TrEMBL record:
The keyword Cell membrane does not apply. GO terms for biological process: regulation of DNA-templated transcription. GO terms for molecular function: ATP binding. This is Sigma-54 factor interaction domain-containing protein. Residues 7-234 form the Sigma-54 factor interaction domain. InterPro entries: AAA+_ATPase, AAA_lid_NorR, P-loop_NTPase, Sigma_54_int, Sigma_54_int_dom_ATP-bd_2. Gene3D superfamilies: 1.10.8.60, P-loop containing nucleotide triphosphate hydrolases. The keyword Endoplasmic reticulum does not apply. Keywords: ATP-binding, Nucleotide-binding. Pfam families: AAA_lid_14, Sigma54_activat. The lineage of its organism: Bacteria, Pseudomonadati, Myxococcota, Polyangia, Polyangiales.
Amino acid sequence: MDTSWRFIARSEARCRALEFAKKAAAADCSVLIVGPTGAGKDILARDIHQHSRRAKQRVLTVNCAALTPTLFESELFGHVRGAYTGATASRPGFVELAAGGSLFLDEIGELPAEAQAKLLRFLADGSFWPVGGSQEKCADVRILAATNRDLAAGLDRTFRADLFFRLSVLTIVVPPPTREDLRSLARVLALEIAERYRAPIAAREASALGDLASNTVYRGNVRELRNAVERYFLVRSPDRTVEESWKAACALDLLAQQGLRGQGSDGNFQNDAQAIESLDDLLFLRCVRETRSARELSRRMNRSLPYVYSRLAKLGIKPKDLQSAEIIESASAKIRASLAPHRSMFLQILNES
């Protein structure tokens, strides 16, 4: 197991958050991580788990914002066969699957009131009832939670005070990265993406990229920075300097933003949006061709398997077709044909300096 911390901190505020995280890893209490979107809360939560006594067990993530009260109960605590229409077999929930490990509740502030009450009962003594079950169960699970909201300001209006105090045995505030943080983050991301793309990058190039990336404002913080660095690798060329490739990557992002605002090169929002989506699909298929494996694709893209399967299904590719170069090439050819009318527009954007 890798014992390094993936959370990057150079500024005083983020270093303070990392120090609190190290204390949390040494303990076994519930932790609430607070900070803006894309600041790295999920990475810090996984770091805490990987450096805790539970590291040999799994850490599972639940996106609370995506679950209704009913779905939350079934996903968290599982259900028995016949519990509701369509429940043809019993299925364990996240709590049972994460037994001995950790459960990361992302966007905990979006949890509906009814679901908050059910979570509170589990936190009190570790007991729960599967949906439709007739027997109480118990699970030893550490809860790590994250939110971009100020839960304390909405206690007993939008969030239960008793649940808040159960979760926040230790609260860690993760601030957005400063320029100093961004420089180091960009260098680390460059090395990580280079390995994923099998595109070696020299230390000098990574350093120069870090300097360039640190001069940009990222509303999406680390998440947006990662996208920017990945775009750099997509447009990187031996015929360009690091600065020219970075400008081309930024121009590609600008094109997408213009399309989303309806200000594309031909004034047609729908055409530009479709072109951008098709380009993304073509880049996705390049990764498919290189990996030929859903699990490897999930690892390389740092996305879940369900996400990979949904992208494949959208392109008409079944998991069993991943070994067929002919099927993948056929899908790529269709997308290249749809992008042909936009070729000059993309080349113009990429060649701007």
